[in-house]
Amino acid sequence: MLDRPFPQEGDALAPLWHWAFFQIPVPPSGTGADGHIAPGGFLPKSEGNTRMWAGGRVQFHQPPTIGQSAQRESRIKAVNEKMVAPASCCSSQ
Questions:
Q1: Model confidence over 41-78: pLDDT tens digits?
Q2: How far is CA 26 from CA 31, 36, 51, 81, 87, in A?
Q3: How many CB atoms lie within 10 A of CB 42?
Q4: CB 32 within 8 A of CB 65
Q5: Beta carbons within 10 angstroms of residue 13's beta carbon
Q6: How far is Cα of residue 74 from the mean position of the Cα atoms in its chain?
Q7: How many whole angstroms separate alpha carbon 65 and alpha carbon 63?
């Protein structure tokens, strides 16, 4: 499986490899208590300190290829604040 030739410029990017190239570089001082990017820039501010990523979509208008220029576009479709009870599975017995 791994004994293949290295991909060459113009070859299709392997599935999910795009995740490696679109990370936002953030210094530790730019993260919140939960380890995510501190709210207030792209992410709206929230009173709670627990955030979850509940889903997303990735759409390619054409298959990405090695060497091709690419651009990331992110949108927040909705922010839903919820009150949850402490997890009973994590309490000590």
A1: 777 776 665 667 777 788 888 888 999 998 888 888 88
A2: 7, 9, 17, 25, 30
A3: 10
A4: no
A5: 18
A6: 10
A7: 6
